[in-house]
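Hi R.,

Here's the chain you asked about this morning:
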Amino acid sequence: MPRLPAGFITRLEAEQHTRHYRKELARGLAHVRTWLAAQPGGSPLDLTRSAPRAVDDLLTNYVQACFDRQVHFSVVKHALLALQKLLRLRHRLPRAWGCLRAWQLRLPAAHRTPMPLDILKAMFAGALDGYLSGLAPLLLLPLAVLIRVAYFGLLRPSEAFRLRRADVYVGATSSGAPVAVVILRDPKNRAHMGRNQFATIHDPGTVAWLSWICCGLPPAARLWPSSAVTFRQLFRSVLMYLGLSDLPLSPGCLRPGGATRYFVDGMALGDLQYAGRWRSPQSLGAYVQEAMAHFAWLNMEDRQRADISACVRLSALVWAAAPATPRAQFGPSPRGWRRFRQTSPVQRSRAANGWLPLAM
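And here is the predicted structure, written out as tokens:
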């Protein structure tokens, strides 16, 4: 069997990537090694970086063989990435990556459908309605606010799930407009853009609701006091309540929804790249192109559009401003928040003024 360098990647290098990504790389590497071992007579090639052209030719045949056998595309892609990292052959496998790109062009588009703003507003109203009815899970209250935060802050679902109250700052710009800053810990692209990143939210209503929901929570409290699975389940439940369960929408649609909204509103790609923490303008450009296409392809019936428009119109005041009643007195809290000791009214008052961290 072809030899692979043992211990070539150190633990520190490996830990630059998320656990899920490392798992995908390991699965791809195991697959390509199994394929190499199954070749007639075995492969005479030692997989080393001293023969990049030979490695490139071999991996090109591997990609073609996997395509012919209908192996999952993701497995093959991660196999190339794993060997490329092991052998330090980045930019030296042109044939293999060219073959993989030709395969990718044959695949159906897999980008998430951007969330339209009107549907976001309807989901916000529907989630609040479910919470206030007393018949639905109390977690609908933080869900209603977090879908807005993820949309206007261009957050990935995992980034929204991990937010704590200590990560939220509320204040105003030099012109007096409300703004919120959320700190993102260990995001997906931390190896390239830093372990701690931030996102800003300028939508006045979202800033008001975020400040309101944080009031009274201690620094360690998570804004989403449950699991990612529960969030996705409740997200689908709200869509079903609104009669939109047939639409291909998920929490992952909030980030592309916000990106397309900002683009349509005239935000420059350079500003959008920085706001959304994309690594390169090329990746953002392709992202926006695909997202806009899926946005145009989102088909809704006339009845659904009419219902959404009516819901948005009736809930306009609620969308624009948070309740005057403090959150702790507004209604019952989700179980994940009830275990925290409430802060004093003086602390809440100080946190609500100016550029003070809500964790104070």
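One quick note: The chain has two domains: 11-104, 117-351.

Cheers,
M.
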